[in-house]
Amino acid sequence: MKLLWKDKPPYDPLLTEIDETLTLLRIAENRYDFLTEPALLDALCLEIKSLQLRYEGLIRQAKKRNLRREPFFDQMALQRNEESK
């Protein structure tokens, strides 16, 4: 029996960096709703713009390398297979 996920390339650290950047961006966007101090809002706007640009750059890199996110269930199946060894 051939296991399908053995044919897939290993998980790339660039995808992890994309996930981390997207998480930081979402956190910053959520903080925006709760700030009232103008100076802090200005700083947060710069942080959000910086994270957006970083995310876009990482996505461009991933596209150039033809990386794509594997569905979550494929990752779980791979982990279960490794744990059963």
Q: What's the layout of helices and strands?
A:
Blueprint: H1 13-32, H2 38-64, H3 72-84
Helix pairs in contact: 1-2
How many separate helices? 3
Give the distance, in angstroms, between the N- and C-terminal Cα atoms.
16 Å
Largest sheet: none
What series of H and E elements makes up the topology? Answer: HHH
Q: Could you state the oligomeric state of the chains shown?
A: single chain
Number of strands: 0
Strand content: under 5%
Label the overall shape. Answer: elongated
Low-confidence stretches: 1-5
Compute the gyration radius: what is it? 18 Å
Tell me the helix content: over 70%
* Alpha-beta classification: mainly alpha
Domain module count:
1
In short:
The protein has 85 residues and is mainly alpha-helical.
Would you kindly provide a written description of the structure presented here, covering whatever features stand out?
- This protein has 85 residues and is mainly α.
- The protein has one domain.
- It is 71% helix and 0% strand.
- It contains 3 helices and no strands.
- It is elongated, with a radius of gyration of 18 Å.
- The model is unreliable at 1-5 (pLDDT under 50).
Features:
85 residues; mainly alpha; 3 helices; disordered N terminus
